[in-house]
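Our preliminary data section would be incomplete without showing what the modeling component actually yields. Below, a chain of 78 amino acids is followed by its predicted structure, encoded as tokens that our downstream tools consume directly.
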Amino acid sequence: MKNFKVLGSGCKKCATTADLISAKAADLGIDIEIEKVTDMGAIMGYGVMSTPGVVLNEAVVHSGSIPTPKSIEDWIKS
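Predicted structure:
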């Protein structure tokens, strides 16, 4: 099972990112785990300076904007 973490302060963009990842996984019929990380120390530990950030299986795959649906689909299918 893929583990996603959405890094950010809990802002609207961060919530939208988490919702998009969850919705795309549901559309594809693939189970994922998703966690929202709001602790700034933990976020900095991933080297993310601009949120929202997305971590897939402990590797940063995106930061600084809401990811595209295509990117999300690629991450889920990979």
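Residues 8 and 52 are 5 Å apart (CA to CA). The chain has three helices and four strands. Preliminary results of this kind motivate Aim 1 of the renewal.
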